[in-house]
Amino acid sequence: MAAESCQALEEAGTNAFRLASGSEGWVERLGGDVLISYKSEAALEELLSGLTRQGEKIGWMPGRIFTRFLPLKNAERIPAVLHSGDASLPLTWVVTEAGVCYEIDMAAGYSHGLFLDQRLNRAKLRALQPRRVLNTFAYTCSFSVVAALAGAETLSVDLSRKSLDRGRRNLRRNALDESGHRFLAEDALELLPRLDAVNERFDAIILDPPTFSRGANGRRWQVEDHFEDLLNAALEVAMPSCAILLSTNCKALDPGALERRARACAKGKRRAATYLQLGLPVDFPPGHGSSTLWMMLR
Ligand SMILES: C[S@@+](CC[C@H](N)C(=O)[O-])C[C@H]1O[C@@H](n2cnc3c(N)ncnc32)[C@H](O)[C@@H]1O
Fold first, then answer.
1. What pLDDT is recorded for position 58?
2. Is the CB of 66 inside a 6 Å radius of any atom of ligand 1?
3. Could you tell me the pTM of the whole model?
4. Residue 98 alpha carbon to ligand 1 centre in Å
């Protein structure tokens, strides 16, 4: 990434961003350290030498370099390993985005805790200043944190209790206590109709499901097949002027496809909406990062 873009991000209180992206891997700056994700040994070597060249240009070198192999199959995913730097330093540390603190944990599994491609969507949610936010597939609850900082009550839902515990820590890292913030370790698809049944309503909803998963009851979830079920269930708990973020990593669903599917759901539910494609942050070239779309009900 260009030196001026790195500097602009740092000046905005952000020290977690992509430094480089290629077809065979990418480099993320995570505070004082970096993570290189790579598909082959040749790609790793190239990304390492690119990092050295870029570091000389921008006058910044990482304290530690972690590396993570990107396997073809999700089942073969393993956590990152330390490639160079001080092995006695903790594997958990804090990065900032627009001045907001998020915990990185290199030992927690394949993902470190913060999806950097969602930076613009976190900023958008915060700017919307919603009152009641439903964050489904919440992971480490970064969307709940920005909503809470804007004064919202939040409900964060994820199958993984450990991820929600990390979300609780992210709230605390930002001097927020848990009052007004609920965390439910449940299947989001099963929970949505129950929220409707007890008349819970939200004025912002985050829908960022995985491409594939198995629900709590072993039910198979595939975003391409079940996207409409999820959005239709979310529309039942949406306030009249709710903002819904639709997001997916599934390559078959680009923002245009998301919008076509969302429009069909809105029509079926007789809800009027406008649609907003924010695109990707400056450090993500086309082809990298999630497809996302804001559906603004009105
Ligand atoms: C793509 S991540 C979400 C990232 C998150 N929105 C963020 O920006 O940090 C997907 C998350 O969905 C969770 N998950 C998978 N299937 C689920 C389900 N049926 N119900 C609730 N959570 C689920 C996983 O545990 C994982 O944390």
1. 83
2. no
3. 0.96
4. 23
